[in-house]
Amino acid sequence: MPHFIDLGVNVDHVATLRQARRGQEPDPITAASLAEQGGADGITFHLREDRRHISDRDVELFVQTVQVRTNFELACAADVLAICCRVQPDWALLVPESREEVTTEGGLDVAGDSGRIADAILMLKDSGIATSLFLDPEPNQIEAAAKLKVDAVELHTGPYALARGTAVVHELGRLADTGKMIRDAGMRLHAGHGLNYVNVRPVAAIDGMAELNIGHSIVSRSVMVGMREAVAEMRRLLDSVTIAGR
Length: 246
Ligand code: PXP
What we know:
Blueprint: E1 6-10, H1 12-19, H2 28-38, E2 42-46, H3 56-65, E3 69-74, H4 78-87, E4 91-94, H5 116-126, E5 130-135, H6 139-147, E6 152-156, H7 158-162, H8 166-184, E7 188-192, H9 200-204, E8 209-214, H10 216-239
Helix pairs in contact: 2-3, 6-8
Bound molecules: pyridoxine-5'-phosphate.
Residues 10, 12, 46, 73, 93, 95, 103-104, 134, 154, 192-195, 213-217 line the site of pyridoxine-5'-phosphate.
């Protein structure tokens, strides 16, 4: 059944857990396969400059094994752009990046860009990869994106997710207004960041919303819904051991 809204699942946080031990588990590739089985329409992964979670090996394997769309999130930096063009994901999602940030903190400044973003988009388009920009819901940013003829804009929902009280309505209004601008300019409307099981529905209900990218809340919930079974499995394993004399 075609989905009303596509769900992109960001598996970076599975890799964060793996990197806590710098070992092999949990493997984000296996997580991506399970996310597909759960109904994901796309798998999103961010190859950061500092490689703090997703690795070069991971991006190769995502593109080779994921059967739904692959969405490669990256900064406008020469080394990751070259990797992206080589591995050929379905989509490239350009984001700003700074080493100090805990997660992506704001949208790209495409309106004030000196040409770096335009050059990156040209390079990706030449490689046959669909392009998307992560932007704050600001009209001048959407106008600048439309001029670059990107395929999609992903609106930054972080401020909406953090808003409380009447500010929630205000933030939703900004998302809806800029969402309309995006669609009127012929681009696909995506959104993401900070969306969870409590706040997602009003964003999904925005006119023309085509795709939501969600990571932290889904990975967090998978720990909670999986904990009982994981402990029960270990319990069964221990109970199956028979020691002479006990
Ligand atoms: N979209 C972008 C551009 C992101 O950087 C992130 C976080 O990696 C997400 C969506 C998903 O955000 P969250 O993990 O808060 O659901």
